[in-house]
Amino acid sequence: MSILIVEDNPTNALIIKHLAKKATDTEIHVASDGASALAMCHAETFSMLLVDHFLPGMSGLQFVKAVRLMERYEHIPIVMITAETEPRLQEEAKAAGVTAFLHKPVEAVAFRQLLTDHLGNSALQKSA
User: Fold this and answer.
1) pLDDT tens column, 14-68
2) What is the pTM of this model?
3) Which structural domain, as residue segments, surrounds residue 25?
4) CATH of the domain at 63
5) CA 28 to chain centroid
6) Residue 20 lies in a domain
7) Is residue 128 situated within a structural domain?
């Protein structure tokens, strides 16, 4: 099992990776743009994708649409991480295949719950 974080801001990527490492022993990969993340998804199957909405080159929504075209990613959880609170974005993202949302700044308890919900307790190192 492994998780791919797609985040162009190095600080945000580091924070999300740190939260993930505290919650799970799952291998964590980071891509800074949609194109490199898409290439990684073609080379490997991740058990979860954590995707920023605003990315250079292609948006998070464009990335999600492209990933969902791959059969092996049909049922993989994709979480959009964004500071945007516009309800229309959530509607468009759900239609594109986003499974869940996390709002920035990412809160540790909500992040852990999201991992539990989508990867199961077996993916977590500890319950507290």
Assistant:
1) 999 999 998 888 899 999 999 999 999 999 999 999 999 999 999 999 999 999 9
2) 0.90
3) 2-123
4) 3.40.50.2300
5) 11
6) yes
7) no
Residue pair 2/26 in contact (Cβ under 8 Å)? The answer is: yes
* Cis before 87? omega within 30: no
pLDDT of residue 47: 94
Condensed to tens digits (0 to 9), the pLDDT of residues 60-114 reads 999 999 999 999 999 999 999 998 888 898 999 999 999 999 888 888 888 888 8
What is the total count of domains within the chain?
Answer: 1
